[in-house]
Design brief:
Shape: globular
Radius of gyration: 19 Å
Number of helices: 5
Order of helices and strands: HEHEHEEEHEEEEHEE
Largest sheet: 5 strands, antiparallel
Number of strands: 11
Structural class: alpha+beta
Strand order of the largest sheet: 4-7-2-1-8
Oligomer: single chain
């Protein structure tokens, strides 16, 4: 996330919940062939209804992809937060080349499949999802607080970021002794983002 919201969410111990109708992929929940007008209408209505009370927190298995930093962390100027999340909460995204074949009866299991199916070009995100209920809005957004089931373990500062150690320490407060904090940098031999091991280079 970017610097402003990254530090704010650290200080307030929360993650923003993505609303289904606001996700950046217009094919969300529409991963099946929708040439049948009746099915298309039914699926779009289901998507709209579901989005009223359910949201998504999107995680990635890997923080080392430079494209993700460019897209989601303000061109490497923001931060990445690393969490331990209960396996039972996580739904792995399945990446496919072609739209799925519709089922005659769209049941809960098939809806879950639609919620976790994306076009193969998104594969670089290595995404896992947590589906959560939407409750009270704060500042026009929904949030989920950090917890023992979603435990903050790392703060990774982008390679182009001007966020200082004291910025992170102030935002973490009493959590700073339990959370690994480090600066990222471009690798020397590969197109990956890696851990900056020389601490003296980051104040």
């Amino acid at each position: 996330m970017n610097k402003r919201y990254g530090l704010e969410n650290l200080a307030k111990r929360r993650l923003k919940i993505a609303e289904i109708m606001s996700l950046n992929d217009p094919f969300e929940l529409l991963g099946i062939s929708l040439s049948d007008p009746a099915l298309r209408r039914a699926v779009n209505e289901t998507k709209a209804a579901l989005s009223k009370n359910r949201g998504i927190i999107c995680f990635s298995r890997n923080w080392r992809n430079p494209v993700q930093w460019a897209h989601y962390a303000d061109k490497h100027k923001g931060i990445c937060l690393g969490f331990d999340v209960l396996d039972s909460y996580l739904v792995k995204v399945d990446y496919v080349r072609n739209r799925l074949t519709p089922k005659k009866n769209i049941d809960e299991q098939f809806m879950l499949k639609l919620l976790s199916t994306k076009f193969s070009h998104w594969r670089y995100e290595q995404e896992y999802r947590v589906f959560v209920s939407l409750e009270d809005k704060v500042d026009d957004c929904y949030f989920k607080e950090f917890s023992s089931d979603m435990l903050l373990k790392q703060v990774i500062v982008g390679t182009m970021s001007d966020i200082s150690r004291s910025d992170i320490d102030n935002a973490l407060g009493r959590l700073k002794s339990d959370v690994e904090v480090f600066k990222a940098r471009p690798a020397f031999k590969t197109f990956r983002i890696v851990k900056q091991r020389k601490k003296r280079l980051w104040a």
